[in-house]
Amino acid sequence: MAANNYRHALFCAIVTLIISFPILGLNLEAQGVNITLTGAKTSTYIAIFMAAVAVFVFQAFRDSFMGMLGKLPTLNPLAHKEPMEQSKRVKLESWIMTGLLVLALFWPFFVSRGSVDLATLVLIYIMLALGLNVVVGLAGLLDLGYVAFYAVGAYTFALLSQYTGISFWMALPIGALLAGLFGLLLGFPVLRLRGDYLAIVTLGFGEIIRILLNNWTSLTGGPNGIGGIPDPTFFGMEFGRRVKEEGNTSFHETFGIAYSGEHKVIFLYLIALVLAVITALIIRRFMRMPVGRAWEALREDEIAARSLGLSRTAVKLSAFTIGAFFAGFAGTVFASKQGFISPESFVFLESAIILAIVVLGGMGSQLGVILAAIAVTILPELAREFSEYRMLIFGAAMVLMMVWRPQGMLPMKRIHIKLHKQE
Amino acid sequence: MLEVQNLSMRFGGLLAVDQVSLDVKEREIVSIIGPNGAGKTTVFNCMSGFYKPTGGKILFEGKEMQGKPDYKISRLGMVRTFQHVRLFTQMSVVENLLVAQHRHLNTNMLAGLLGTPNYKAREQKSLDRAAYWLERVGLLDLANRDAGNLAYGQQRRLEIARCMVTEPKLLMLDEPAAGLNPAETKELNQLIISLKEDYNVSVVLIEHDMSLVMDISDRINVINQGKPLASGTPEEIRHNDDVIKAYLGEA
């Protein structure tokens, strides 16, 4: 046992050395036209050696370290508490939600433009995560290509505005419906797949959409993207300094206030807020409806669900379609916020981040997902000073989170209908 | 009402079910017995649509069932339970029954989102039906518990209730008494008879508990190594030499 541990630790230390030495210890330097290999400073060698020692020590005493980690949750006062009664939990959750909403309504008027912009991004991620939560958390279908639907929503608006001059408010339902249609189309081939296989196929689908957007240069502009996507209007009033379109009036002139670039940012934020709230409410409602129960039933035991007359096709497709629909929503808002989109914005990392939000928040839990979306979007911004290390910090935070609370921040169950006794 | 004609099921080189025939009339309890591995559950899986039989016919109320998708068969009124209880363990007891009534509910999404009167009425109706069946199997007090937290005997009863809320015409029970104590088996015995007498449901039963089988069956089919061995009333089966040989070995 112990000898085995040491052998394993030694192996890990050597691997560390093999990996880090050529990367850190050898430098390529340009001398004129030639490139020569030079060694690094002594301090670097010492650091590499120290790192190997650290790996060795950690691996050798790994069991006791992990044991200590396991005991840490006692620091969390909630760890050993009985789960809250469903009615209480629901009440508390709606209070927190209402509180968050009131806060979210007022705070953009007191903070800087940059933070409002960031908050809009948070809201977009909330919409995406809530939508993916339907597919992954409720229906239990691991979707790694979710960003494709986001891209469909965004590109629908961008292309339609470029070719037909459509407004934001028209594009919103079209983008969402088209994304939903794509969800339906993806649903068909993957009906029989589950688990890993499903994940791979959805991953492929996400890449197909991105690569298509990248290479269909004549339509999408390829990597150059599409610019000049219009901002949303407020009952026909534009937010620019000068009106772009004939017949429109501008917001600041109508209300007789001085022009400020902040109006537009705040307005977009409020739109995103309203849409995020609508998303949350609709999905909340779905969860209590027969379709919500069918999702959960199919996730828990597909064979039993089918034996009771649930059609696997209908249930799975509805989950994919509804999830994709809200991604389309978010995509339209994103296109409008950025004013410019390119395939760069819809890489696999986005899918992974949205999935991370859902997993961190606790699958199936709306409040958890919202809090996780806030954390995951804002933390990298706060850690901007650490620049290249922030993805490292992000990754470390994820690992720690999974060790401590694998079930997510607020693992919550779907609200179950109760049977009240009829006397 | 159910007629299985020369059903065969082949898995590669293995002929798991060979020319099995079976018929069930209205309000009848028919048992399928046989040693372990005889192919009883395979017959069930063919009947409920999980397998597509490689030969033979399954006629339910005169319509051919073989090869139909499982959920359609269950919607037509042939519903089954499983050898190992398959409940939705993280859902509450009453929700297990609501899932089963999916097709009775108004599943129009818009109606559900808006909460139309029709939607609410149907939901209430299915809650009432769930309450009725929970009362019937003695689980009403546990309605809001998680199904996974029930005792084994209760889970068995819940599974039967979950089938009954779909309002089936034919119920297929796969070893419903497995893992039950004698008292629970007796309750189950009465429940199955009542399903037949009071709710006009036909029952096909796979069971190893001979006292249960002999007590409640109208007719018994014996299968051995995938082949039909004998069929008849409990009295006939009890005295059939072939059956005794198959079960006890040759003397």
Describe the protein in words:
The complex is a heterodimer of chains A (423) and B (251). With 423 residues, chain A is mainly α. Chain A is 67% helix and 4% strand. Chain A folds into two domains: 2-75, no CATH class; 86-404, ABC transporter involved in vitamin B12 uptake, BtuC. In chain A, strand 1 (26-31) and strand 2 (34-39) form a beta hairpin. Chain A is globular, with a radius of gyration of 25 Å. Chain B has 251 residues and is α/β, with parallel strands linked by helices. Chain B is 39% helix and 24% strand. The model of chain B has no long low-confidence stretch (mean pLDDT 89). The chains are: A mainly alpha (423), B alpha/beta (251). The interface between A and B is large, with 30 and 41 residues.
Q: What is this entry, summarized?
A:
The complex is a heterodimer of chains A (423) and B (251). Chain A is mainly alpha-helical. Chain A has 17 helices and 4 strands.
Q: CATH superfamily name of the largest domain in chain B?
A: P-loop containing nucleotide triphosphate hydrolases
How many β-strand runs of chain B? 10
* Distance between the amino and carboxyl termini of chain B: 40 Å
Shape of chain A: globular
Major sheet characteristics of chain A: 2 strands, antiparallel
CATH architecture of the largest domain in chain B: 3-Layer(aba) Sandwich
Helix content of chain A: 55-70%
CATH architecture of the largest domain in chain A: Orthogonal Bundle
Helix content of chain B: 25-40%
Amino-to-carboxy terminus distance of chain A:
64 Å
Element pattern of chain A in H and E? HEEHHHHHHHHEEHHHHHHHH
How is the topology of this model organized?
The complex is a heterodimer of chains A (423) and B (251).
Chain A: H1 2-25, E1 26-31, E2 34-39, H2 42-60, H3 62-71, H4 86-106, H5 113-138, H6 147-164, H7 168-187, H8 195-215, H9 217-220, E3 237-238, E4 249-250, H10 251-254, H11 262-288, H12 290-300, H13 302-307, H14 312-338, H15 348-361, H16 366-382, H17 390-404
Helix pairs in contact in A: 1-2, 5-11, 5-14, 5-15, 5-16, 6-7, 6-8, 6-14, 7-14, 11-14, 12-14, 15-16
Chain B: E1 2-11, E2 14-24, E3 29-33, H1 40-47, E4 55-60, E5 63-64, H2 70-75, E6 78-80, H3 93-100, H4 109-114, H5 117-136, H6 152-164, E7 170-174, H7 182-199, E8 202-206, H8 210-216, E9 219-224, E10 227-232, H9 234-238, H10 241-248
Parallel strand pairs in B: 3-8, 3-9, 6-7, 7-8
Antiparallel strand pairs in B: 1-2, 1-4, 4-5, 9-10
